[in-house]
Write a structure and sequence with these properties.
about 150 residues, mainly alpha
Amino acid sequence: TLASIGLPGLSGFVGEFLILLGAFRAAPVFAILAALGVVLGAVYMLWMVQRVFFGPLTREENRSLGDLCPREWLLLLPLAALMLWIGLYPRPFLGRIEGSVAALLASARPGAAAPVPAAALMGHPEALAPAPGALPAASPSTPSRGE
């Protein structure tokens, strides 16, 4: 639930932050509306957590429920670790999708400027440098095969 509301340091925050940052660069008004939706969603989720986990018991049979057993902890801990890893160090995950996202954006908006890598948006300006062995970008004056 805390990752769903975009709590900093957890996996949901990275996604929400990058989406809102990209939306703000493209359409600031819609980004502000989206940010308002994120805040309202967080308020609703926290209200739900308060009622479910800290509210009064409504059924007597729930009084005898115990805490997590060792098997449940064994299943929960790797998921929690993955949530923290993605939230604190998203670079390996973002790097794997960078090429696909660039190709998608290039096909969606022909002639538009190349997108800024996500790592550069997150405070890693070295991500703007071309990768070693990368091919140089074609200049607009380069004729295509058919010309």
